[in-house]
User: Fold this.
Amino acid sequence: MTNKQLISLMYRAELVEEITANCYSTNYQRLIVIKNGDRRVGAIFVYGKQETHWLILPRSRGRGYLSNALKTGIIRKYFKEAKYASCCNHNYHQFNYLIRLAGLKEIKP
Assistant:
């Protein structure tokens, strides 16, 4: 799934359950929408049973939304089988920090 497809899914998702102050589950079982107030700022998506992908919209990056969501243990709570994440950006140190917060391992290319 491309980032564009994930963004589209994030905006179409019907929010049905509040999980934390900033994260909501959706009627799409494998997606958690990250919000700041009423604004959707990103999403966490699990492919298949183990691979995790997350995305924060460019205008919302650098504000701690993803870090705060991952610190809640949200991936372990709702996606118990998730084990791995892959890096698709150029900030490898930030990626390593985030996978540690999420309790995941890196998928080596």
Observations:
- The mean pLDDT is 77.
- DSSP finds four helices and seven strands in the chain.
- Helices lie at 3-12, 65-71, 74-78, 92-102.
